Description:
Layout: E1 2-8, H1 14-23, E2 27-30, H2 37-46, E3 52-56, H3 68-77, E4 83-88, H4 91-101, H5 113-129, E5 133-136, H6 142-154, E6 163-170, E7 181-184, H7 205-212, H8 215-237, E8 242-249, H9 255-268, E9 274-279, H10 284-287
Parallel strand pairs: 1-3, 1-4, 2-3, 4-5, 6-8, 6-9, 7-8
Helix pairs in contact: 1-6, 2-3, 8-9
Amino acid sequence: MRFVVVTGLSGAGKSTTLNYLEDAGYYCVDNLPVQLIEEFAKLLNENGEIERAALGIDVRTGSGFDELESSLGTIREMGIDYEILFLESDDSVLVKRYKETRRIHPLAFGERLEVGIERERKKLSNIKKHAAHIIDTSRMLTRDLKAEIDKIFVNDRNFKNLYVTILSFGFKYGIPTDADLVFDVRFLPNPYYHDELRPLTGADKPVSDFVMSFPEAGTFLDKVEDMLNFLIPNYISEGKNQLVVAIGCTGGKHRSITLASALYERMNAYDDYGFKLEHRDFGKDAARGK
């Protein structure tokens, strides 16, 4: 039997994750009192019909949450194996989600949201250290989260606790504040100065062909791909679970889109990590009437 304990920060996507697991055939229970976890696991183990189960646990269980580690230890001593999936997100994203849904944070106690989030992080710090899988949902759409859940718990593919966003942008709109690695591709000839290419973007074949016609573009991709293959395992070993690779040109419309897309195609083929492609400044010139 595969037994998954789903926990993490409130607002990071635990309920959504449990829904996905249930749709995938897992027997799911949410917010079970910690005092009943041992009995629940015992029943699952004795029931030969249930092959996959997921248990949602969070701070809503109240003071009993402090007993979670002890209960999980007892379960393992009983010979029942489990794996912890921990969901987290940036504070700013959590605040935005709470404001959109108008929900009350379980640990805010009438104070500001940020206070409740900080309390919860401290309360969850120990259980996070024992997580087999950590997913940061800060930059994820629901479909991205589903893809990660399917990869780990449905298709049983290896998961290495890192989600990579490859992001194109324009320097004239500012460097992305959340970028971990920034690459400047303004060394390549600019399609903007060709009348037939100016209204197009790097997603269009004529622009892509133009940019990639220069040998330096291929060399750049080779070197960045090699660098990421070196960096990613080292980031993982240091506990990093989200990486933003930003590729910028002047306006974020031609060269950066072409090369970000090409890098995404290369890296996504490795199938070892989660990858997402974003074009931050796509269409901004058009929106400004340029």
